[in-house]
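Researcher: Quick test of sequence recovery. Tokens follow.
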């Protein structure tokens, strides 16, 4: 008997900051049309103590040209000088999590981001649903 684990898509961002709200806008739209469990994460501290073994993360990423799957091993961590510097890559490293990540370019066209994300989600879900 095969055990099927439900995949959860966690999305990050600040809905009030233009440079950091695109993942929130995209996922709120897709949440209404796809039969997938989406959860907005407002603070990376929410990851502590949660089972994220079968999760997908969607977030805005600087320096990429299109929506793409990102290997969590290649994430760069910045210097930590205050509590405000505890970004997603820091928490993933701290918690030893290696999720599947879908990156959306910062300041990307919203409709393009929605379409490209919609097309890539099945690739991330394959074999997990």
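Model:
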């Amino acid at each position: 008997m095969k055990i099927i684990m439900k995949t959860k898509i966690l999305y990050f961002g600040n809905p009030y900051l233009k440079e950091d709200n695109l993942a929130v806008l995209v996922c709120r739209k897709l949440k209404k049309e796809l039969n997938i469990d989406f959860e907005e994460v407002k603070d990376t501290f929410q990851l502590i103590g949660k089972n994220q073994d079968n999760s997908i993360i969607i977030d805005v990423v600087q320096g990429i040209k299109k929506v793409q799957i990102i290997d969590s091993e290649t994430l760069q961590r910045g210097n930590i000088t205050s509590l405000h510097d505890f970004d997603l890559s820091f928490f993933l490293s701290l918690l030893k999590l290696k999720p599947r990540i879908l990156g959306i370019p910062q300041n990307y066209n919203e409709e393009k981001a929605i379409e490209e994300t919609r097309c890539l989600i099945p690739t991330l879900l394959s074999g997990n649903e």
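The longest strand covers residues 55-61.
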